[in-house]
Amino acid sequence: MTASLLLLYICAALVLQLAVGGGVAVWRLRRIAPGTAVGPGEGRPETIGDAWPGWREFRVARRNIEDAGATQCSFHLMAVDGGMLPPFKPGQFLTVRLHVANPGTGIPGGSAMVTRCYSLSDRPRPEAYRITVKRVVAPPDRATVPPGGASAHLLDRVRENDVIEIRCPAGQFFLDPDPLIPAVLISGGIGITPMMSILHWCLDEQPDRVIYLFHGVRNGREHAFKATLEELAASHRNFHLSIVYSRPNPDDVQGRDFQHTGHVDVDLLRRILPRGKQGFYVCGPPAMMESLVPALRAWGIADEDIHFEAFGPASVRSTIGASPEAVLVGEDQLEIAFRRSGRTLRWDGRDASLLAFAERHGVPIDTGCRSGSCGSCETRLLAGRVQYPQKPDHVITAGTCLLCVGTPASHLLLDA
Question: Domains in the chain, please, with CATH?
Fold first, then answer.
């Protein structure tokens, strides 16, 4: 055997050994289910892909009050396990689980586990998430309605280094990443939170993209992120800021603190926005959504260019774009039985979802996102079939249904 031939055999053997080793490694990785740990650290939920399963503990690294009235607070959250955080789409939210123990919250028994969804209010960062929460107060004209228990708990009781449980980011409200389409961001009150996420991401990743932000609040006491927004508008030529106060305080100065008086409406948009295709992103209280979104359509904005997130998306969709057939009462009304509540009611098609139906009839249901993402309203389906006009983000467990986005396809027996 010549030296050349021997060298050829050795090289072939090395190549074969490397190929076998690589194949074994790939086979081992493929056996690991998505979401399981592959890095160092026993039990560490580093993820393959963009989500972790179930609940994960987060520590409050920092709190920041964001408005002069101290009604809105940001919470900077870091994973207790020290792992890096998967990115999210600007505009999405986090689902938070809290043990609320406060007799003044209106929660039966004074103590309960509650689940709520809060929009992420900063761009994706690998080390921390940020949410911003506004205190929900009792309506002045409805003394029997309690204040928001979860928001009061977060603002009054949750401090730095406290631990809360969180599910991975989710939601269908997020920015179209096409930098050539100008983004028109429209928010009311705490609806500014997903806009801050979108805005920060755009200015960092797409600094040449044209962005308009129209934000409406009552007055300067409730104006969250005021200094931040003014600084961003001053330092980015393609970011155009319009602040609207509906009830300015005596010390609020037009031209300095805000640009317009009244509400954000289509007339204001017409005066400021140039012609051409734009993507509209709207987030605010129901009254704003129920007037503005249909007005955008009446103005001629295509449905594909209107994206919205409301404080209860299911209820908003019931008044926006509902077909006449959806609200007709048929002769064959369906019976919806709630086993634990001991009530049997008739579905007449007036409600956008089973959750809205239950709430209208006073049947208590735990809720969170109200858009099919968090799973808070998942309820055992004891009999019947539930249909979903839009596929929910949450993976529905066999034998259960999501009330917030589901409607009955037959008579139902629910464990609620």
Answer: 56-139+146-170 (2.40.30.10), 183-311 (3.40.50.80), 327-414 (3.10.20.30)
